[in-house]
Amino acid sequence: MTGNLLTRSDIETTIFTQYEKLNRGDLDGFLELWDQDAVFTFPGTNILGGVYRGKAEIQRFFWLLRQVIVGLRFDINQVLVNGEYIAMEWEDSGRTIQGEPFNNQGVTIMRLRDGRLVEARDYLDTEKLKAFSMGRKNRSGR
Asked: What's the pTM?
């Protein structure tokens, strides 16, 4: 894939397909679109909060996310494309490791360059994730 040849429809379809892979637990398939040097930022002072640099760190983040939210599923409401930038509105659901229902919603802003995701940043209600911290520090040491 090259960035110049992708239409908006191609990008939207690709994003939906990648998140279906994540929903199935196929982390390798989900990460196929990510550049080796991509940067992913997850907000908050919860256990997941921080900046993840490189595909390996991003894979660890999504692996951990799937451990703390059992049966994690993303439902994408809409994908907006503006040049190399993508905004994706989503809702996620699953269960905490204690068995409680978990639901959240947010927006991910992504940048695509030459057909690869090079950066992404989530915006969401991080208070819902505070219960996972329980005295553990996030990646920033907070």
From this structure: 0.87
